[in-house]
Amino acid sequence: MDFTHDEEWRILAETIRRFIADRYTIETRNRFAYGAGWNPELWAEFCRLGIVGALFGEPIGGFGGRASDIALVFEELGRGVVVEPFLGVLMGGRALAASSEHYGLLQSVVAGDVIAALAHDELSSGYADMDLDTVAERHGDGWRLNGAKLVVSHAEAAGILLISARTEPGDSISLFAVPGDAAGLSIRGYPNIDGGRSGNITLTDVDVAGSALVGDEGAGAAIVREAQAAGLLALCAEALGIMTVMKDATLDYLRTRIQFDVPIGKFQALQHRMAVVLVEIEQARSAVINAVAAFPADPRVRDRALSAAKVTVGRTGTLVAEEAIQLHGGVGMTWELALSHQAKRLIMIDHQLGDEDHHLRRFIVLGKAA
Amino acid sequence: MDLTFSPAEEAFREEVRKFLKDELPPELAEKVARHRSLTKSDMERWHAILNAKGWLASHWPVEWGGTGWSVVERFIFEQEAALAHAPRIVPFGVNMLGPVLVRFGSDAQKQHWLPRILDGSDWWCQGYSEPGAGSDLAGVKTTARREGDVYVVNGQKTWTTLGHFANMIFCLVRTNSSGKKQDGISFLLIDMRSPGVEVRPIVTIEGLHEVNEIFFTDVRVPVENLVGEENCGWTYAKYLLTYERTNIAGIGFSTADFETLRRIAHVPDRRGRRLIDDPLFAARLARVEIDLENLKTTNLRVLAAVAGGGAPGAESSMLKIKGTEVRQEIISLTRRALGRYARPYLREALEAEGDDSSIGSLGQPAAAAHYFNARKLSIYGGSNEIQKNIISRSILEL
Questions:
Q1: Global confidence as pTM
Q2: Where would I find the H helices in chain B?
């Protein structure tokens, strides 16, 4: 049994960590996280370090693409609360990889030259995942799309949008690669509370060529599910990175903050709470490791492990964010501290790709005997 | 045992409801219901409406312009006002300083300051916490040195809520550094327009400006602004804190927020699905509803035990802990209920007008911001850890 990463991957992790420490301070991050939503120059530098390439396999221009590679990269990105569009590129890239037709476009995505976003979610209560009103109808040699997609991360920055839509017959779902500037496609962008921007996409008679179809007609749901599986793993690993740095900062505070003439870490009531935080983060790390191990397995086993991880990270993330703020007192609520931005991102991870309750339900369903 | 209100109390409730229906401006209620930011003039407006009715100072004796309400009447008013989404009464003058002046102030101080609190001439803020004196409040280091007819004040206060709106601040200052630290504290009223006072904003987690740091550099304060006796300020400070903790259970706010949450849970989506039909969410909702119902009675039991008005003692710590936990859970569930639509942060929707329905936020575009802001509930007014210390010491006698 070996829980360590290979030497070359450890070096990549250190490289990302050093780059974030040197170039991606919280002040730098916040300047554009709460402004333009991302920084194309820093994105390009991240790409030169090989961070996007690490997310994809060699046949499509990357040098990684294993579950452990995704987890390693996103844990480091989490530590820096990096706001650049890695998640969209990961999911969009994985979706494009389902089709040999889009090899050129995919290479541009893997190289970091084109930002991709998965535009799948529509207005619904909870996180009902394959319930679409967006439709694509055959129109000449191509397709005509109508509908709306909500809260798409980095929608405005995306050069290519992977849009899911219902196609005949019945309720089958197909996936289309649509340029961000396609005629009839409009985006209403807005900031996210945790940094970055998202957008609502309206599709009004958007005409695309027949070649815009990704994979087979009717294969969209399966492709989206594959892309989301990678996305779920990425989010869980990102949360792990955030929780780790929040724990370290809180520990540091308990050791240095003096009240009643002693460091507050001397109070047993606080020691025990910090001990619980530590134990729960270790449990979350194990959940991510379980998900990595199950990732190559059949989708049912894989998705159950991913749901287990997302449930764990959702519950533990809330605990860590709330305890870190509480143990810091008022200071923990200030904009000035990295901690407050980490807390926002950590909590909002539970609002992406299904929350704790959604995945608890999915875990139960997938566990029932077939 | 009788859990019902008396006919007189029910009549009072009707009177309060009628007043709120007639006098609470709908645009203010709308802002409060959606957790939008209130402006200074919004707060002053509601203050003036209550003052005109004579319903502003529920903790003061009638002779100084108070309402003379019983604890139950006060509870009824607070509950009904919150359910109607009335703005919170800005507490610093009315609920904090007022009772201290009534009890410990000189006649001249009462006659000068109390009417000015009621008519809104002064906006007070609270100079208690310092960077090094949070939970350990008696550790205040801001000094006041007597020089003839003035005190010369130097130091720094922090977490001063709405200090940027205030023209006056009541401060705990150190007038003696020898001996026990509680014994060298005095209670001083300081004009914020004095030379040497500087207010700097603190931006909080959700990006808003509500609290401040206040710096004092050789600020000259007339000695007649000392409340009570020099070096006895700790007694007054603690007396004030018991008033800060009245209504600390926040039952009215929790009930109002719970009703909003329940409504959201019953809104059908485009397929007719409702959150309330999800057993996991329904269980979360039910648990917090049970906690809230229990807390309502715990609150009334504590109020009933406080004979003839005044403020409860260590029992208020119980209400603070449970009250903030329940409120935070309700606010947290509201964020959860919005699902993926909690992430968009439309600042314009937090300000006066602005469209907020198109993202799917069900009229609560500030739900996530409100959640992060509400983390303060378990920190301020004596953190919940400090309240547990008080319970351990005063009730459990450990």
A1: 0.95
A2: 7-23, 26-33, 40-53, 71-83, 91, 98-104, 107-118, 233-244, 251-265, 279-305, 315-337, 347-350, 367-373, 384-390
On whether both A213 and A226 belong to a single domain, the answer is no
Q: Which domains does chain B have, with CATH numbers?
A: 7-89 (no CATH), 124-231 (2.40.110.10), 245-395 (1.20.140.10)
CB contact under 8 A, B267 and A191: no
The range of the structural domain enclosing residue A58 comes to: 7-114
Are A93 and A65 within 8 A, CB to CB?
no
Residues of chain A numbered 159-198 and touching chain B (CB < 8 Å) = 188, 190-194, 198
At which of A165, A183, A218 does a domain end?
A: A218
- State the nearest Cα–Cα gap between A199 and chain B, in angstroms: 9
Residue B323's pLDDT is what? 95
**Running DSSP on this structure, what letter comes out for residue A119?**
E
pLDDT of residue B351: 61
CATH number of the CATH domain containing A57: 1.10.540.10
Among the partner-chain residues A151, A343, A357, the one whose CB lies closest to the CB of B343 is A151
Q: Is A2 a domain residue?
A: no
Of the candidates B144, B174, B157, B31, the one whose C-alpha atom is nearest the C-alpha of residue B92 is B157
- Chain A neighbors of B211, CB-CB under 8 A: 330
Considering only CB atoms, which chain B residues are within 8 Å of A318? 332
A145 in the same domain as A57:
no
DSSP letters spanning B189-215:
EEETTSTTEEEEEEEBTTS-EEEEEEE
pLDDT reported for residue B356? 52
Q: Which residues of B touch A322 (CB under 8 A)?
A: 375
- Pairing type for strands A116-119 and A160-166 reads parallel
Q: Which residues numbered 270-309 in A keep a CB inside 8 Å of some CB on B?
A: 270
Q: Quickly state the pLDDT bin for B349 (edges 50, 70, 90).
A: low
Q: Give the per-residue pLDDT at B348.
A: 65
| A151–B344 CB contact, under 8 Å | yes
Q: Which of B244, B289, B348, B385 is catalytic?
A: B244
* Residue B359, pLDDT above cutoff 70: no
Do A32 and A107 reside in the same domain of the chain?
Answer: yes
B154-194 pLDDT, tens digit per residue, is 999 999 999 999 999 999 999 999 989 999 999 999 999 99
Which of A34, A81, A83, A125 to substitute to test the interface with B, most B CBs within 10 Å?
A: A125
The number of distinct structural domains making up chain A is: 3
pLDDT tens track for A256-282: 999 999 999 999 999 999 999 999 999
Whether A205 is in a domain gets the answer: yes
Q: Would residue B348 show up in a list of annotated catalytic residues for this protein?
A: no
CA atoms within 13 A of residue B147's CA, in its CB half-sphere: 10
Q: Assess whether A156 and A201 both reside in one domain.
A: yes
- In this prediction, what percent of chain A has a pLDDT beyond 70? 99
Q: Where are the alpha helices (DSSP H) in A83-219?
A: 86-96, 103-110
Shortest CA distance from A338: residue in chain B: B205
Which of A93, A114, A135 is the endpoint of a domain?
A114
ipTM here? 0.96
Q: What is the CATH number of the domain that holds A337?
A: 1.20.140.10
